């Protein structure tokens, strides 16, 4: 089982399985939303996530709907319209002591990477520049 919550604990969630993978996304939308060089997403089957309180939805781009806590503003999830059976949960919201969390497996959208951030060498991740490559995940 996996669990997590927003920063103020108003919105929590559980999942019946651990995440299938972690992906570091360097797209401009993720960077701006995270306020960091990338956003790490933990992917689950959408049907495995149970929200204790439903988060607020926002149509972030034509490709995805994102959710957040209306009280503290924490980023919670991203649902890609092309793959409604999979949901990305903001990895920083996971309860580490209750969730088996894998190491990140991919860096995606490197064509939009922050110029001031250097990727670590030899971390074993796959590295993709754009969307078309990511669709093969």
TrEMBL record:
Pfam families: GFA (PF04828)
Family per similarity comment: Belongs to the Gfa family.
Coiled coil (residue ranges): none
The UniProt record lists the keyword Zinc: yes
Keywords linked to the UniProt accession: Lyase, Metal-binding, Zinc
Top-level taxon in the UniProt lineage: Eukaryota
Keyword Zinc: yes
UniProt domain CENP-V/GFA: residue ranges: 2-129
Native source organism of the sequence: Penicillium roqueforti (strain FM164)
Name of the protein: Mss4-like
MF (Gene Ontology): carbon-sulfur lyase activity; metal ion binding
């Amino acid at each position: 089982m996996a669990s997590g919550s927003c920063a103020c604990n108003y919105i929590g969630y559980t999942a019946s399985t651990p995440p299938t993978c972690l992906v570091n996304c360097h797209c401009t939308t993720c960077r701006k939303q995270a306020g960091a060089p990338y956003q790490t997403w933990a992917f689950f089957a959408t049907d495995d996530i149970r929200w204790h309180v439903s988060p607020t939805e926002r149509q972030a781009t034509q490709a995805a709907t994102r959710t957040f806590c209306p009280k503290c503003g924490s980023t919670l999830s991203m649902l890609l319209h092309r793959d409604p059976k999979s949901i990305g949960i903001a990895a920083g919201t996971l309860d580490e002591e209750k969730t088996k969390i894998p190491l990140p497996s991919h860096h995606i959208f490197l064509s939009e990477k922050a110029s001031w951030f250097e990727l670590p060498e030899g971390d074993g991740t796959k590295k993709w520049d754009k969307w078309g490559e990511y669709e093969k995940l």
